[in-house]
Each structure stands twice: as structure tokens, then as C-alpha cells.
Amino acid sequence: MNKIGLFFGPIGGSTNRVGKLIAEKIGNEFVDLIPVKEATTETLSKYDNIIFGISTLGRETWDGEHTKNDWDVFMPSLEEFDFSDKKVAIYGLGDSVTYAQFFVDHMGILAQKLLNAKATLIGKVSPEGYSFEDSKALIDGAFIGLPIDEDFEDYLTEERVSAWVEQIKPELL
Ligand SMILES: Cc1cc2nc3c(=O)[nH]c(=O)nc-3n(C[C@H](O)[C@H](O)[C@H](O)COP(=O)(O)O)c2cc1C
Predict the structure, then answer these.
(1) Burial class (CB in 10 A: 0-12, 13-18, 19+), 139
(2) Is the CB of 148 under 6 A from ligand 1?
(3) Ligand 1 contact, 15 CB (< 6 A)
(4) CA 93 / ligand 1 centre spacing (Å)
């Protein structure tokens, strides 16, 4: 059986922690957890089934110069990559209260790049049960992946992850 490649960034925060939880729920033996900081397109090509984990850190909120984060460095390489034989699921960390108008925007930006690169995206999630104002991750009325808010709704993370894993596991394994 082919393993799932779970690529996440940054290291050491909520995206990392939720990545570990997803791997645990799928079964750690089926998942390789790989920080995007250590990944190249060569690493990606080893996997037919991929999960991407990304947080949204809106640039408009930064003071001064923006330093490139792990995803800023990795994302451009995806545009050159052919995802046509890959199944991809995305989860995104965000804050639905402080950034209600930009909730998990970067999950949407990543999804758009993957769709342009011909990926098959799985794991869409209904916006029901989330409160927010707007999100680039909403495509045709559904979230293009799993939004997680560890800042204000951490008590919902476990059940959200469990339901999502039930949904994607049969498609990825
Ligand atoms: C400077 C800054 C900007 C942020 N901008 C957004 C945003 O635009 N949209 C959003 O949903 N969350 C935003 N967040 C919330 C983070 O995405 C959230 O805290 C997330 O859990 C961080 O994950 P990480 O620890 O893996 O980086 C922002 C957080 C910070 C500190």
C-alpha cells in the first residue's frame, strides 16, 4: 500500500499539531509527516495521495518587512509540478474571530494553484457550523478543505478532524 504524504508548514505550531492528529486518526503507519521546509517537488513525486496543511498569516497585518515563511518558499514550486495523477486533501489553520473576513484564505490560495496544476482535490467541507464573514477557501459554497480554528474553537478540533478523516480515508488508502 502506498503511504500518504502529509506536507505541512510551519513547524512547531498549530498546523504541525493538527497534522499529527490527522496522521494519528488515519493511522500513523500509513502517513509520512513532512515539513514543507524540508520538501522539494522530488519529495512530492513519491506520493500519489497527498495532504497539505497550511496556516493563514495575512500579510496586511504584519508590521514592517515580511519575512518569507516556509509556505512562501515552497508554494511557487507547485506551479511547475504536474498533479494530474495525484489526489490531494487540504486542511487550513485560521482564526474565525479576529480575521473573520479572511478566514483560512491561504487554504483557498493553495487550492487554486493545485487546481491549475490539475490536482484532484478531495475533502470538501460544508461551512455550516463555522462563523466567519468571508473566505477565499469557499469555492461553490463549500470549503475546499478542512478549516480548523485553534485560537477560538479548539474544543471542536477533535470532532472536526475525526469527521474529515472518515471522509477522506477511503479515498486516500
Ligand atoms: C500576524 C497574523 C496574521 C493572521 N492572519 C490570519 C488571516 O488572515 N486569516 C486567518 O484565518 N487567520 C489568521 N491568523 C491566525 C492564524 O492562522 C492561526 O493562529 C493559526 O492557528 C496559526 O497556525 P500556526 O501556529 O501553524 O502558524 C493570523 C495570525 C497572525 C499571528
Answers:
(1) middle
(2) no
(3) yes
(4) 7
Measured by CA distance, the residue closest to atom 12 of ligand 1 is: 94
Ordered by start, the domain boundaries in the chain are: 4-172
C-alpha cell at 33: 509527516
pLDDT band, very low/low/confident/very high, at 62 (cuts 50, 70, 90): very low
What is the maximal distance between C-alpha atoms in the chain?
A: 48
Give the residue whose CA is nearest to atom 2 of ligand 1: 57
User: At residue 47, what is the residue type?
Assistant: Y
Convert the pLDDT of each residue in 143-159 to its tens digit: 999 999 999 999 999 99
Pocket test for ligand 1, best of 14, 71, 99, 160 (most atoms within 8 A of CB): 99
Write down the CATH number for the domain with range 4-172.
3.40.50.360
pTM, two decimal places: 0.96
Give the per-residue pLDDT at 8: 98
CA angle 98, 18, 157 (to 5 degrees): 65
**Degrees, nearest 5: CA angle 8-113-148:** 40
Q: Is 135 in the pocket of ligand 1 (CB under 6 A)?
A: no
Is the shortest distance between the CB of 157 and ligand 1 below 6 Å?
no
**Model pLDDT for residues 114-145, shown as the tens digit of each residue:** 999 999 999 999 999 999 999 999 999 999 99
